């Protein structure tokens, strides 16, 4: 019986989604399976090329800055050119820039190309999320975003393990393999994915032309979500920047950190789908409050960790918050976005995570150096509490339809109803 129930749960989790979604899901998985560069960039620059840790940090920051810049540009492209052209340009440019990064040797050239890689690799995110919102029915979007997030983490887990073996043979091979797999994603998109941007009437086109970045910035509720997303992202980023430093200062080895953080990937792969089935039709505002507080206090508990087992336990707590937050928050962003402005809205939302990736290393370094790791974990708990309170205030005023689904309050010029399922690609 348990096996039968598990099969039924899996079938219900993946059923009812359009074929185009699965091609997009496949491209996401392939792309993440080949994501080697981000994993071994620091090792490549310090061990293979002989540069300092400071220079490696600068390159990492430029890589993140490229993502910040491209978030807004790609959002505009997604709305103006379409989802498919933006994806093709982003994936082809990423393949070319990653391959180029493997051959450049001058430090200035490396930094410049790293910025380009960050910009091009991040440019596909608004288009992917907008296309997913176009082709999936509103009631299935949380499940679809959850499945996509699951693919991202599965691909990252596999690529992280493979990166170590590839780096022992040749760093250049890693760059070329990632470039090849990214190019394969572009070919898959070209062959299998039609444009999903809904057809527009003359009136809708005129309204869409008025949905500029200024419209996004004036959308108070949405910008509130972006600001709270930034706070939550600051917390989650500490798993990659604050946690290894704190564990190192406490006498733990890199292998210990690897074991602790591996719990994050394993739990996401194991629990993302069943947890999503549990939360799929629950109040998103309440879920965002719970996940924000859980993330903050999950990292806050790290202040009391004195053994590897306790560190792994804290990872379990904030990973559960991540599993709840990721699909729920993405679904809320789509719900708050006008159909013909989804690219710009998704670009602004993506930028909140890119900016957090820039700020988090500085924040963790300053706090740990001046006051100690315990203050960093206490700050995470405070930020999580503030974010949870913010979501509670922001979401409780959301208007409700007869069927119980929230309706966003959009600026007048941004109001365009979601298309019916048969109108999407």
From TrEMBL:
Residues 20-399 form the Major facilitator superfamily (MFS) profile domain. The chain crosses the membrane at residues 21-47, 53-74, 86-104, 110-128, 149-167, 173-193, 222-245, 257-275, 287-320, 348-368, 375-394. It is found in: Cell membrane. It comes from the Bacteria. Residues 405-425 are annotated as: Disordered. It holds the Pfam family MFS_1. Keywords: Cell membrane, Membrane, Transmembrane, Transmembrane helix, Transport. The keyword ATP-binding does not apply. Gene3D superfamilies: MFS general substrate transporter like domains. InterPro entries: MFS, MFS_dom, MFS_trans_sf, MFS_Transporters. It is a multi-pass membrane protein. One of its GO terms (molecular function) is transmembrane transporter activity. The keyword Nucleotide-binding does not apply. One of its GO terms (cellular component) is plasma membrane. This is MFS transporter. It comes from Streptomyces capitiformicae.
